TrEMBL record:
It comes from Saccharothrix xinjiangensis. Pfam families: DUF1416 (PF07210). Gene3D superfamilies: Immunoglobulins. This is DUF1416 domain-containing protein. InterPro entries: DUF1416, Ig-like_fold.
Length: 100
């Protein structure tokens, strides 16, 4: 299934970050192996849905966000998982989500 034209940004490892940008980036994995095609959701500190992307074939995802506490939830046919990340300010904030 092609994701061209669906509006979701292309995921990958190349990343240009501005001085004032907050980027949450990472990988979805299962038993240490990357999981492509997972629906990765960004939830704010209150649990409200904020955004969604599809992980790349290598399991990569990223969100441009505001500073704060975030939950990243991954949904895949092989399992689900979530992880929390706190972005205190601008920069790249890594997070890995394990699905089981």
């Amino acid at each position: 299934m092609s994701l061209d034209g669906c509006g979701a940004p292309q995921q990958g490892v190349d990343l240009a970050v501005g001085d004032d940008q907050v980027v949450l980036t990472g990988k979805v994995k299962s038993e240490g192996a990357p999981v492509g095609g997972a629906f990765v959701r960004l939830l704010d500190a209150t649990g409200e849905f904020t955004a969604e992307v599809v992980s790349s074939a290598e399991g990569d995802f990223r969100f441009y966000a505001a500073p704060g506490r975030w939950t990243v939830r991954a949904l895949h046919r092989t399992g689900n998982g979530q992880a929390s990340v706190t972005a205190d300010g601008p920069g790249v904030h890594p997070v890995e989500v394990a699905v089981a």
